[in-house]
Amino acid sequence: MSPMDKLVVVAIGGNSLIDDPANKTVAAQYAACRKTVTHLVPLLQRGHRLLIVHGNGPQVGFILRRAELARHELHMVPLDSCVADTQGAIGYNLQMAFQNELQRSGLHRSVATIVTQVEVASDDPSWQNPSKPIGSFMTEEDARRHAQKDGWIVHEDAGRGWRRVVPSPKPHSVVEIEAIRTLLQNDAVIIAAGGGGIPVYIDQTGEMRGAEAVIDKDHAASLLAVSLRAEHFIISTAVDRVAIHYNTPREQWLDELSIADAERFLADGHFAPGSMKPKVEAMLAYIKSAGGQGVITDPQHLSAAIRGEAGTRFQAAAQ
Fold first, then answer.
1. Candidates 93, 132, 195, 292; catalytic one
2. What tens digit of pLDDT does each residue of 228-261 get?
């Protein structure tokens, strides 16, 4: 198989698109995108095809906060529309960053963002147990008002204030998968399923409807990697490797993980929900279904990870 035949799917976190928590302007977010892209261009220089899935948690929070501040004049923004908005805005930043870096590197590749819908099941258990916090912290008064007026489900969050919580259903299929496949076959760099994709479901009449939910972006990226039979799946995060006993005196960084060990560590609670747990689960789903090469690492080590020289590498068979 030639390098041009090898597809790399990379999932990058929404927080990795914000370098400085004290500076979250659009210009600062573009600068962070440009920095992230510099770590991705070497994969293209090696001849790989590339698909990027990005997070959007902070950016959706910004949209919801703007809507909250403007509620006396404007309508609230449905969550599926928030995801679509961020797919366009972050995709635009990534496209421009790629185009500028590709020109600087002397490479010629098309770059495209696909506004991506991801189908979820209408009977997913998460609909009955919303647990994903989104948006800003609120006072109890504001939270109760939203619950009454907008139908929000709100929870108190560890003494820090109140937040809205929404379902986080599992992704089942990517609506635009054939368009994505065609563009990749024509060597375009693709940005897809941003924020985990716009959650949609099929209603009782057979029509597609948007949902007030959030799909985990690592699980959506894993689904894409499996559906497209990607040879490499990389989850880029804040640390260069996975650890057990994280942030304790017994902390141990892992260069390799077998399926059996990863499942055992998950069962033992080594990986925190909302942090490393979904990343390991998404990686296991990919390894079991596609059998390719999977790595969790940080942006600086993406290229080395492809060469097997960095990150935590997931093995298809027990070691």
1. 132
2. 999 999 999 988 999 999 988 999 999 999 999 9
Condensed to tens digits (0 to 9), the pLDDT of residues 134-176 reads 877 888 898 898 888 888 899 887 778 898 899 999 999 999 9
35 is catalytic: no
The residue segments making up the domain with residue 276 are 3-120+188-315
CATH number at 64 reads: 3.40.1160.10
Instruction: For residue 196, indicate whether it is catalytic.
Output: no
Give the CA count within 13 Å in the CB-facing half-sphere of 89: 21
Q: Collapsing DSSP states into helix, strand and coil, what is residue 182?
A: helix
- Residue 273: which residues within 8 A CB-CB, separation 6 or more? none
- Of residues 6, 57, 196, 217, which has the active-site annotation? 217
Q: Residue 27, class by beta-carbon neighbours within 10 Å (0-12 exposed, 13-18 middle, 19+ buried)? A: exposed
Structure tokens at 130: 């919303």
Residue 103 falls inside a structural domain: yes
Cα separation, 160 vs 46, whole angstroms: 47
For residue 99, count CB atoms less than 10 angstroms from its CB and return exposed for 0-12, middle for 13-18, buried for 19 or more.
Answer: middle
The strands making up 117-120's β-sheet, listed across from edge to edge, are 171-174, 117-120, 198-202, 208-210
The one catalytic residue in 13, 14, 196, 197 is 14
Name the CA radius of gyration of the chain, rounded.
Answer: 20
